Amino acid sequence: MLHIHVLNVRHGDSIVIQYDGPSGTVYGVIDSNSTKDVPCAALTKLEELGASSLSFVALTHPDCDHYSGLSRILKHFQQRIAKFYSFPLGVHTSGRLKEYAQIYKRVYEKAGDEFIRRKIKEFIEILVLVKEYIGEDNWDEPRGPSSQIFPPGFAGVEINVLLPLPRLKGPFFDMIKRGDWDVAANETNNGLSLAFNLRYKGHEIILAGDGTAKSWLAQKQEITRGLKSLRGNIVKLPHHGAEKDNTDNVLEHLYGKNDGNVALISANGISHPAQKTLQRLDKKRISPYCTNLSKYCSNIRHIDFSMAKKRGIHPRLSRFLYSNSIDGKIHPCQGDISVLIDDRGELSITSQYENACPRRGELNFL
Amino acid sequence: MNGCHYTEVESGLKNRISFLSAPSSETSSTSMSSTPSFFSPVSENVTETKAREEDSGRLFRISFEEDSCENIQPAALDVSSKSVNAVVTGIYKESVLYRVQLGDDEYVEIKLPRALAPDNIFWGMPVSIELDRSTGYVRPVIKERQAPPVDTEELSELDRLIDRL
What's the count of helices (H) and strands (E) in chain B, helices before strands? Predict the structure, then answer.
C-alpha cells in the first residue's frame, strides 16, 4: 500500500510518503514547513505513524516554506535516514557547500529581522546535519527530465525525478562562484525545484514542488523527444497553485489524457491558490483538494482596520498595507490530505476535515 | 458634493464641508465665518470657497488644506508613524513580498510590484515603507534601511556551522 500524506502547513509544502512494501513499512519526507503552532508537521506525522527510520528525505528547493522544520527531522532521525535528495548544489565539488553557505551568511548579516536570520541559520544547519548524519555519499542531486531513483524499501514503486532540468545547474553554480545574493531569491530557487512522479498499481502521482511553467514546458519538450508523456491522475500542483505556474499548457502536460483527475493544493488559501488556477481546474473537470479554504471559495477576508489604532500606524498607511495584504485569517478546508493506493490498485483520498467541495461537485444534489 | 468628500480620502487634499446659513446671494468669501461648522476649530491657513447646492439652495463652505491631518486631529486619526519597517521575503519576476513588522510578534505580508523595490534588492533586505503624496498621488516609497545589529555570538555560531561543511 502506498500512502501520500500532504500535510496542512499553510503556505508551504510538507509531504510524508508511507509505503507498505516487501521489506516492511518505509517512510520518506519531501519538504517541511513550520507554522506558529506546529514546529514540524512532518515530524509529528512520522511519530504518529510510528516511523523509526526514514528511507529518504528530499528538499525540493531552498525556500524557507519548504525547509522550515527540516532540521528537527534530521536531529530526530540522525543516522537513521538512508538517502537525501536535493536540488543541484554540487555537493561533491570541494568547497561548493561552503561557498554557498557563505553567501547566506552575508545575507544574514544584512538581513532585516530575526525571522529571516532564524531561517538562514536553520538552512545552514540543515546542510551541516545532512552532511554529518546522512553523508555526502548518500546525498544525491537527481535531475529531470525523467530519471528513476531507488530509495531503499520502495521496490514496487517507480519513482522518477522530473525536474530540475540539467541545464539549470551550470548557471546556478556560476552564481555561487560569483557570490551572487540572488541564489537566495525565490525566482531562482523555484527554477531549481525538484519534482517527482510516483507510479504504483497503474496510478501516477506527480509531486510538482515549486516547478515553474518555464521548467515544465521545457521538461515536456525533452520527454516528448523520448516519446514519453506524463499521465498524472493525482497531481500536487506546482507552486501552491500559482496562476503563472499552472497555465493550461502546464496542466495539460501534467495530467496528459487521464480522466478522473485530482489536484492537491498545499497553500494558505489567501495568497494561493490563484482564482484562475481554480477556474482552469474547473474547466478541465479536475477535482481540487485544498489544505486551506481558498478566499475565492468563501467571503472570508478578515481585514483588521484597527491596526492603525493598535499599532500606532498612520491610518492612510494602514489602509495601504491592508489593501495590498496577502495575509488574512486562514481557515482549513481539507486540512491534511491522504492519498491511499491499496494493493489492488484501489485509490482513495481522505482528508482531515472532509469538507464537501462544490468544485468537486459534492454539493450538486442541492 | 459627496464627490468632494471622497476626494479627501483618495487624493490627500483635505476638503472640509460645512453647512452655512448665509444668504443665498453670497457666492464667495475669504474670511473666516463665525458660523459653526462640523469641523472646528478651522485653522487660519485655509482657502475657502462657497458653493450653492442647486437643489436645496443651501450653501456649503469647502475648505482645502494641504496635508492637514496633523493640524486638525479628528478623533479617528491619531498622530502615528507614517513609515513602517519591513523585510523582503520573496523576490519574483514582477513582484516582491514584504513582511511588514507591526509589533514584536505581529506582521502583515504585502505584495507590491517589482518596480517599486530598491535596485539592489535581496532576500531578507531590511526596508522601510512610507507613502509619498507630494505629487498629489499616493505613491509607496520603499527604501533600504539599516540592518539591525547582528548578535556576535550568533554570528560565531554560524561560522562554526559553516566550518563543518
Answer: 3, 8
Domain locations along chain A: 2-293+331-359
pLDDT tens digits along B5-42:
333 333 333 333 333 333 333 333 333 333 333 333 33
Q: Spell out the residues 6+ positions from residue B112 whose beta carbon is closer than 8 angstroms to its own.
A: A324, B95, B96, B98, B140, B142
Q: Which helix (H) or strand (E) element contains residue B64?
A: strand B59-66
Question: Which residue in this structure is represented by grid cell 491558490?
Answer: A273
Q: Are strands A347-351 and A337-341 parallel, antiparallel or unpaired?
A: antiparallel
> In what helix (H) or strand (E) does residue A102 lie, and over which residues does it extend?
helix A96-110
What pLDDT does B108 receive?
Answer: 85
A72: amino acid identity, one letter: R
Contact (CB, 8 A) for A308 and A314: yes
- Kind and range of the H or E element at A118? helix A114-129
Contact present, A199 and A228 (Cβ < 8 Å): no
pTM check: above 0.90: no
CATH node for A2-293+331-359: 3.60.15.10
Cα A1 to Cα A20: distance, rounded to the nearest angstrom: 5
Q: Return d(Cα A265, Cα A288) in angstroms, integer.
A: 7
Taking the C-alpha atoms of residue A315 and residue A304, their distance in angstroms, rounded to an integer, is 12
Residue A66: closest CA among A112, A116, A10: A10
B152 burial class (0-12, 13-18, 19+ CB within 10 angstroms)? exposed
Cell representation of residue A263 = 489536484
- Shortest CA distance from B95: residue in chain A: A187
The ipTM estimated for the assembled molecules is 0.85
User: A115 vs B165: CB contact, 8 Å cut-off?
Assistant: no
**What distance in Å separates the CA atoms of residue A80 and residue A59, rounded to the nearest whole number?**
17
Beta bridge partners of A140: A85
Q: Do A108 and B158 touch (CB under 8 A)?
A: yes
Q: What is the pLDDT of residues B75-125, one digit of tens each?
A: 333 446 788 999 999 998 889 999 998 877 778 889 999 999 999 999 999
- In angstroms, what CA-CA distances link B92 with A191, A195, A212, B88? 11, 20, 11, 11
Q: Which of B127, B140, B157 sits opposite A112 (nearest CB)?
A: B127
- Determine the residue among B73, B105, B123 to mutate to test chain A binding: the one whose Cβ has the most chain A Cβ atoms within 10 Å: B123
- Comparing CB atoms, the residue among B125, B148, B158 nearest residue A121 is B158
